[in-house]
Structure formats: C-alpha cells, structure tokens
Specification:
The protein contains twelve helices and 15 strands. The strands form three sheets. Strands 9, 10, 11, 12, 13, 14 and 15 form a seven-stranded antiparallel sheet that branches. It has helices at residues 14-28, 63-68, 82-85, 87-100, 124-127, 132-141, 174-208, 212-232, 306-309, 346-349, 354-377, 424-438, and strands at residues 4-9, 33-34, 51-56, 73-75, 113-117, 155-159, 169-171, 243-248, 272-281, 285-289, 293-296, 340-342, 390-399, 405-412, 452-457. Helices cover 34% and strands 18% of the residues. Residues 183-204 have a biased composition (Acidic residues). Residues 219-233 have a biased composition (Basic and acidic residues).
Length: 463
C-alpha cells in the first residue's frame, strides 16, 4: 500500500475541531504522515504521485494544484456548491426540480418562499413586483387585526448569503417588512461612521508607533474587535447582501420537557430544529450521520403576533425579541443548558414517542437524498461534484406541527463548536465516520459504520 500524507489546518474553531480530525485520521489511517503546516520549510516538496489528503479552510485550498492531480489528491470541499449553501440558490434549485418532478418529496419538504433582490429600502416595492405570493399574503394580513394579528400568515426573512442566523426577521405586513430594511440602513450608516472613526484612530496610532511589530499588534486588536462585533450582531448591511428569501413561517412542532428532567430554566414547550451532518463524497455518494442533534430555542414558544413585531412608529426601537422563534444557538446568550440535545435522546427528556422520532429520521434521509438530486439536476452549474473531493454539510430541518419535516437551509463548514463540550464525542464520531468513508480514495478498505447511512449513490462524473 502506498504511503499517505495529510495536510491539516482547520482554521474554523481550530482548538475544538482540529484535534478531533487528527484523532480520527490516526485511528483509521495509522500509517498516515501528518505534515507540519506550521513549519513548511521542514516539509520537502511532494511529487505529484504522492497520495495527499488536504483538510483546510475553503480559502486555503489550492484548487488548481488539487485538480491537476485527480487520482492522488483528495480535498475537503467542492469548488462550486452554491446550489446548496446559498439560501436563494437553494430555493431556486428546489423549485426548478419540483417543476420537472412534481411527485418529488421536496414538493412539501420546504416552506413556500420567494426570492428577491433589493439594495435600498426605497426600491423595496419594485423588488417585490414578481413576488406575488408574498405581496398577496401581506395585503390579506392588513385586514386581520383580531387578537393582535394572531390570525395572520407570518413570514420569515433571511438574507441569502448570511450565516449563524444573521438578519433573520419575522413580519406579516408590508409596513413591518419596510421597517426591517429601514432599521438595517440606519445600522449600516452607524457602522460606517464607527469604521471611519476606527480608521482615524488606527492612523494616529500607527504614526506614533515605535516599530513595525507594535503597529501589527494594534491592527490585530482592531480586527479582533471588529470580528467580535460581527459575531454578536444580528443585523446586516443591506447594500452588501442584496439577495433575500422570504418564506412562510411554519407553525412548529413543540416539545415539552418531561417532569423531573433537567430543566434548569423551568421552560415549557419549545421550538426546535434538527441539525444533521451530511457527508458528500466524490461524484457522488451521500451519507447522513445518524447521530443528529436537536437545537432548541432559548425561550418557551409563543406564536408571533403584531404586538411583538409591529414597532413601525418607533424607528429607534430595538429589534424584536426572537428568542422563542430562533433555534440557532450562536444567537443565544447566557446559559445554554438544554439547548442542544442528541436527537435520539429526545424521548428520554421530552414528551414524545420513539416511533415519532424514527419517523422524522426517515424523512430526513429521504429529503437529504432528494436535495442532492435536485442540485445535480440543474446542469451542474451551481453544484459540481468532483471525484477527488468530499465535504461535510450541516443540514437544518424544521418539524412542523403537522409532523412533516422540512429542510430550512444547508451550511458549508458548519459551526461545530456550537455543539458544545458535552456533545463533543458526537462530533468526534462524525469525523471518524467521514475518514472511514473517504479513505477508500487511497485504496484503503472501507469500514462499516452504522452511524454513516448512505442515502444516495449516483454516478455524475466529474469536470
């Protein structure tokens, strides 16, 4: 068997993720040679015939070199996968596929939605000219005033290219939607002023600096500060992210903790979503990692009402509290106890039957396979599987009150750290399963792992 080398530099949440990948590599490829990425001078150039696994951030991948060695170089990301990971592309991908395949499970497995582009709030009306379903719904809602608008059809707004829950808002009228964009434009103006002030301070400090190293440290402090602000903010700059998706808000299936279970906040019924890690390998095999997660909202669920979200008369008001509606843990502050639960542990902690959980899992597998079928059916323009690549995606699914599972979004390079320390072993198991599959690229024998469930195996060739 030929020697195998690996270049590993997983920069996202490195302290959490990289040790888990290293452990999986050493466990399943014990003869692997791990290259020292911190000291490239000590690593001699490898001939093109060398078996090389590259596992880094997307930006660090040398695609030209990797593509030049399709039989020896394996890397951890497809080059083009917008059809999956951009919300507006995913919506279009599914809609196009369902039109050609009306019997597909995807017909009822995604919320009704529209996509539109808008740079500035004054052009919002023009942007919605072809969003017939949305406009008609908002017009109907204008006449629904009883019980604080609880009889309205609510919509959820998502920037097409954001992640970690940034920019998600709820609305039910045109006035509420317009107010959302007005608020973002005000935030954008304030951020620009702050950046100009920071630039002025940076120039002053650099002028007074006694040396190059001090100037570098000051720049790093500013960058770190800016990154922290971005992570905590739930707003966006509208002119920078002009693609948006609006989807009908699906009334969720709620889970109530069982009596005497660990429920430190004494929280009642809560909304949740299912996080599923999916491995796409070569061109094209799809595996669902069976050990899924249930991510819960921070607060007890209450249906949306206009009294909570209609603050159009106060342009200085804070964004509405979405803690009962958003299940993305990176938006939750304070204690996260009970926010992340292993999916298969739900019957132990919540009032739910095991058969129902198994039914949801079956739907997840079926929908996942169909999403990838849809992605490769569009001429492979926005999703191009490669024989010498693999990628881990984070699929988010919502269970509606009708018990049906719907796919919400797909994330590349998912935020594993949000899983937390308690469920770190679950993430470790994922990487073990991934290595057990992808090592076959190098001629190694495949390992049976019941946690990695193959849901699709099609030959779509390569590029």
């Amino acid at each position: 068997m030929s020697e195998i080398y690996a270049l590993l530099d997983y920069t996202d949440d490195k302290s959490y993720v990289q040790p888990l990948i290293e452990s999986a590599l050493h466990k399943h490829l014990p003869s692997l040679h791990l290259l020292d990425n911190n000291n490239p001078a000590t690593t001699p150039p490898l001939p093109s015939t060398t078996n090389l696994l590259t596992w880094t951030s997307y930006e660090s991948l040398d695609f030209q070199t990797l593509l030049s060695n399709p039989t020896t170089n394996l890397f951890n990301a497809y080059i083009i996968r917008k059809a999956l990971i951009r919300k507006h592309y995913l919506l279009h991908t599914i809609e196009s596929y369902v039109k050609k395949n009306p019997g597909s499970v995807l017909k009822d497995a995604t919320p009704v939605g529209v996509e539109f582009e808008v740079d500035y709030v004054e052009f919002l009306d023009e942007a919605l000219v072809e969003a017939y379903e949305l406009v008609e719904s908002l017009e109907r809602n204008e006449g629904v005033e009883e019980e604080g608008g609880k009889g309205r059809e609510w919509w959820i707004l998502k920037p097409g290219m954001s992640d970690r829950g940034a920019g998600i808002r709820l609305f039910s009228t045109m006035g509420e939607l317009q107010h959302i964009f007005e608020g973002w434009e005000e935030e954008s103006d304030e951020e620009k002023e702050e950046e100009e002030d920071d630039d002025d301070e940076d120039e002053d400090k650099a002028t007074r600096s006694d040396g190059e190293e001090e100037e570098k440290e000051e720049r790093e402090d500013i960058i770190t500060s800016t990154d922290d602000k971005e992570k905590k903010s739930t707003g966006i700059i509208t002119s920078s992210l002009r693609h948006f998706v609006a989807q009908i808000y699906i009334p969720p299936f709620l889970l109530t903790p069982k009596p005497n279970t660990n429920n430190p906040s004494n929280i009642g019924p809560r909304k949740f979503h299912i996080r599923t890690y999916v491995l796409a390998y070569s061109a094209l095999k799809i595996y669902v990692y069976k050990n899924m997660l249930a991510l819960f909202a921070a607060k007890e669920y209450t249906p949306p009402s206009s009294s909570d979200f209609n603050n159009n008369d106060d342009p200085t008001s804070e964004p509405p509290d979405l803690s009962a509606h958003l299940t993305n843990t990176c938006l939750q502050s304070g204690i996260h106890d009970g926010s992340v639960i292993p999916f298969w542990n739900l019957p132990e902690s919540f009032i739910i039957d095991q058969t129902k959980v198994e039914e949801w899992y079956s739907q997840v597998c079926e929908i996942t396979a169909e999403v990838f079928k849809a992605a490769v059916s569009g001429g492979r323009i926005h999703f191009q599987p490669l024989p010498n690549a693999f990628e881990i995606f984070g699929f988010d699914f919502l269970v509606g009150e009708d018990g049906k599972v719907r796919v919400l979004e797909v994330n590349a390079f998912p935020d594993f750290k949000q899983t937390g320390e308690e469920e770190k072993e679950l993430v470790a198991g994922l990487f073990e399963g991934v290595v057990g599959v992808v090592k076959t690229f190098f001629g190694e024998e495949a390992e049976e792992d019941e946690r990695m469930v193959k849901v699709l195996d099609v030959d779509v060739g390569g590029f």
